[in-house]
Amino acid sequence: REKKVTLCRINNYFCVSLQGGVNDEVTLTAYITIALLEIPLPVTHSVVRNTLFCLETAADQKENHVYTKALLAYAFALAGKMDKRKTLLDSLEKEAVKEDGSVHWQRPGKEPEIDLPYYRYRAPSAEVEMTAYVLLAYLTSQPAPSQEELSFASRIAKWISGQQNPNGGFSSTQ
User: Fold this and answer.
1) Residue ranges of the alpha helices (H) in the chain?
2) Tell me: the pLDDT tens digits for 54-103?
3) Can you list the GO cellular component terms from the UniProt entry (predicted)?
4) Which of 56, 58, 61 is nearest to 79 (CA)?
5) Strand stretches in the chain, DSSP E
6) What 3-state DSSP class applies to 151?
7) How many whole angstroms separate alpha carbon 101 and alpha carbon 146?
8) Where are the domains of the chain?
9) Helix, strand, or coil here: 116?
10) Of 50, 66, 93, 105, which is most buried, counting CB atoms within 10 Å of its CB?
11) Cα separation, 110 vs 107, whole angstroms
12) Nearest residue to 136 via CA among 110, 157, 151
C-alpha cells in the first residue's frame, strides 16, 4: 500500500535540526506554526496562513499519531480555529488513558508500567509533552474554556503534576 506523504514547507526552508522527538513534516510544521502564533504573528500573515492551510489538510488524515493530534489541536486553538480544535480534542479524548481521577496520553504499543514498591514510575518525555500540549489546547479557547473543558483540563493537570521529578522539573526535550 502506497502511503501519501504531506510535505509542508515554510518559505522553502525545512530545518531538520529542530525536530527533537518529531519524525514527520506535519508535526514539525505544527511546532513551527505554534511558535509563529505565540510570537504573536497574526493568522493573516502569509507564512502563518500557508502553514495553517497545510495543517488543515493534514488534520483530515486518519493516520495522525496522537502526538501530532495534540500539536495540531494547540495550533488550531492559537489560530482561533475552534471547530478544528474541538474535532481533534474529541478524537484525543477517545484515546486518553483515564485512571485515578487523572487523564493523559501515551504512545501506541507502549510497554505496561512496572509496579514496584518504593519506585515511582514517571512517563517518558514524549508522553509528558503531548499531554501538556493537549492541556494547552483545552485552556486556549476563544472566548474562554467552558466549565466542562476546565474540569477535564484539571484532570490532565493532575497527571502532569504527578510526573514532576524530586527537583520539581519534568522529563522533556522541550
Assistant:
1) 25-38, 46-59, 66-79, 82-95, 125-139, 147-161
2) 999 999 887 889 999 999 999 999 999 999 999 999 999 999 999 999 99
3) extracellular space
4) 56
5) 97-99, 102-104
6) helix
7) 19
8) 21-163
9) coil
10) 105
11) 6
12) 157
Q: Determine the Cα–Cα distance for residues 53 and 58; give it in Å rounded to an integer.
A: 9
SS3 146: coil
Which cell is 28 given?
Answer: 514539525
Beta bridge partners of 103: 98
- Which CATH number is correct for 21-163, 1.25.40.10, 1.20.1250.20, 3.40.50.720, 1.50.10.20? 1.50.10.20
Q: Whole-structure pTM over 0.85, yes or no?
A: no
Three-state DSSP class for residue 103: strand
- Tell me how far CA of residue 169 lies from CA of 10, 102, 142, in angstroms: 33, 19, 30
Q: Which three cell numbers stand for residue 97?
A: 488513558
